[in-house]
Structures are given as structure tokens and as C-alpha cells.
Amino acid sequence: MSQEAAAGALPLAEPIEARTMAKVTRRLIPFLVLLYFVAFLDRVNVGFAALTMNKDLGFSATVFGTGAGIFFLSYVIFEIPSALVQGRVGARRWIARIMVTWGLVAAGMAFVTGETSFYVMRFLLGAAEAGFAPGILFYTLSWFPDQHRAKLIGLYLIAIPLSSFLGAPLSTLIIETMGGLAGLAGWQWMFIIEGLMAVVLGIACLWYLTERPADATWLEADERAWLTQRIAVEAKAREVGAQHRLADIFVNPGILALTISYTFLILGLYGLGFWLPQIVRGLGFTGMQTGYVAALPYLFATIAMVVWARRSDAAAERLWHTVLPAALAGIGLILAGLFLDAPLGAIAAFTIAAVGIYAVLPVFWSLPALFMSGTVAAGGIAFINSVSNLGGYFGPTLMGWFKDGTGSFSGALIVLGCAVLLAAAVLFVSIRHLLAGSSGRAA
């Protein structure tokens, strides 16, 4: 299509685009980041509950690790069905339903009494939260044109390390100060308070979120018209080739390589995330100190994520901006395993690992655009995200096995580090291949 034809199909005045997208960004981004923040907080806060819950309920490391990981089994099973239902009932109502449901289940975690109920509630939590992440991304398709969505993903992902950075001291504060109130332990209050946060936000979704631009009274009439037309044109373009999407996904070597590498990255991310509070506590820190020390790696990880993503975009370079932080994360985990008996060295190693893992995330999610577009890209991203979350089961479970089997986390951290290094190697080979293929097609 010529530039003149494109302009005729989509009259775009830059001032109205800037004005409209500024309003949409201010209205939606802070709220969506808050939703994602609470989602990850309710997902990983069991790691802080374990500081006292494991003793109260008599959980071994294997029981805790398995229960923490079971979340991801149901999450993977129900993610696609949940996304399909959302397409029928609308994103706003379905996101609200997901948040209210998972908030109630998360609060219900306060009343687990043993191994079986722990497994059941974690499984239900994963089922309740399934579809949330793709649901948010689906919702943004109605509000953010393609050229604005990369920045959105970067902002969206910041909520992941922030949930650990801010959630660590918050969770430990609740545990340390509210224990005994109304006859409940501190970890029970933590689940109740943080779970009800999701319920409140879920209800707020119904009145704060707008389903589509045409209904946005907070936009001017010309802004609504421009955004509605722009989104409609892009949606129509995404329909091209939709009937071949599944076949393209399952046989695409690029998608399979990214899925394998991301699974190993997730293995390290959640293996560390769920167990870090207990590891830090084992280094000799008190309850509140544990919260602050466990938050430290995620402070640097949040900064690194923003700086590294901007550097990658500015340099228009993906290979080394993906491989180097992944390799750094693997080295950090291995060093943590080797120096686990030295508190300062271990904390420094955990910080290196967190910086590497989180720095790679926004750059990683720009990779599918190197060899996919339209519906195939959307389906490929969903496939990578869904399948690789299985790493979230094996990471914390592996840590529990090693702890009970050897009495230490050292071996597990070294194994996780090797897995993340393998992810870096797969990324190096696959990205070079994808870049070579892109150059060949361009030529």
C-alpha cells in the first residue's frame, strides 16, 4: 500500500495522536500497572508467609515448594479457556471477575490447615488468575495502536519486580505486627489483606475501565473517532492469515526456541522468587530485616529493567541485550549457590541474578517481532507465555527437593543457574538465526 493510500485509509494528524495517546496513557497505564502489581503480589506472597506458616503447619521444604509451584499447573491449564471466554463477555467484565475470584481465593489461603488444603488452594489460585495477563494484553489492543504497545509492555513488566520490592517489606510488616490479632497468625492476616486488595480493585475495574474508545467520555469526540478508526484498521490487518495461526505456531522453530529459553528463565525467576525470603532469613536476619534485605535485589532489578530496555531500543540491538543479562543471571545464581554461607556475598549474588533476569524480560518480548507479525505474532506470544510458565512449577519444586535432600539450597541454586545459562545459549543461537533470516528476507 502506498503512503498516499494509507493516509486515505487512515487520516492521521500527529497532534491528535499525541493528544489522544497522552490521555489514554495517563488514564489506563497507572491503573493497569497497579492491577499487575497486585496479581504478582498475591502470586508470590506465599514466600513471605512461609517464614512462619511452614512452622505453624508443619510443612517440609518439599511440601512448600510443590505447593508454591502447583499454582502454575492450573494457570497453564486454564489460561487459554479463560481467554476464550473473555472474547465473548468483554475484557472489562472478565478482568473484574478474575480479580474478584483470585482475591477471594488468595484471602482464603489464610485458612489452610495442612498439606492437602495448601495444594488445593494454590491450584485454585492459579485457576482463578488464569487469563489475567493475556486478558490485560487483549484489553490494550482496543486502546493502544501497535506503535505505542512496545512502550506499554515495558511499563507493564515493571510491576513484576516492583511487586517483590514493595511487597517484601509490606508482607513482613503485616506478619510481624498483626500476629495474634483476632486470634489469627500474622501470615493469615497477610493473605487476607493482600487478597482483599485484589477484590477491591476488581470491583473498581467495572466503573474505572472503559470497554472501548467509542464509549470513552473522558476523550473528546474527535479523539474517540481517531482512536476507534485507528484500532479498527489494525484489527482488520491482524485477521489476515488467522486460519493458519496454530499450524504456524507449532512448526515455527523461532517460537519453539524462545519457548524453551523462556521456560528456563522462568525456572530461575520463580525458583529464586518464592524461596528468597526463607534463604535470607536463614542467613541470620530478623523478620523485618528479612523483608528489607529480600527487597534489595528487586530495587536494582527494577532500575535495570528500565535502563536496559531503553538502551536496547536506543541502540536498536537485541542479540547482546538479551544474551548478556541472561548469562549474568545464570552466573549470579551459581555464585549464590557457591557463597551461600557468606551473607554479603550471597546477597550480592542474588542481586546480580535478579538484575539479569528482569533486565532481559522487556527485550525478550520484542524478539517475536523479528520473525512474526499480525495474528501469528499474537498467537506465538500467547504460546510462549503459557507453556513457559511450567518453569514456575519446576523452579520452586526443585528448590524444595534439594533443601530436604541435602539440607541446603546451594545445589539447587547452581542447577537453576546452569538452566538460565542454557537459556542464554539458546537465545544466542536462535536470535542470530532469526536476525540472519530477517536480513535474508529484507534482501
UniProtKB/TrEMBL annotation:
How would you describe this protein's topology in the membrane?
Answer: Multi-pass membrane protein
Q: What is its main location?
A: membrane
Q: Which residues cross the membrane?
A: 28-51, 57-78, 94-113, 119-141, 153-175, 187-209, 255-276, 288-307, 319-340, 346-365, 370-388, 408-431
User: What domain of life does the native source organism fall in?
Assistant: Bacteria
Q: Where in the cell is it found?
A: Membrane
Domain Major facilitator superfamily (MFS) profile span(s) in chain numbering: 28-435
Q: Which GO terms describe its cellular component?
A: membrane
- Key words, A-Z: Membrane, Transmembrane, Transmembrane helix, Transport
The record's Pfam families line, in alphabetical order, gives: MFS_1
GO MF annotation list? transmembrane transporter activity
CDD domains given in the database record: MFS_ExuT_GudP_like (cd17319)
The record's section on PANTHER family has: PERMEASE-RELATED (PTHR43791), TRANSPORTER, PUTATIVE (AFU_ORTHOLOGUE AFUA_6G08340)-RELATED (PTHR43791:SF36)
Protein's UniProt name: MFS transporter
Q: Which organism is it from?
A: Chelatococcus reniformis
Q: What is the lineage of its organism?
A: Bacteria, Pseudomonadati, Pseudomonadota, Alphaproteobacteria, Hyphomicrobiales
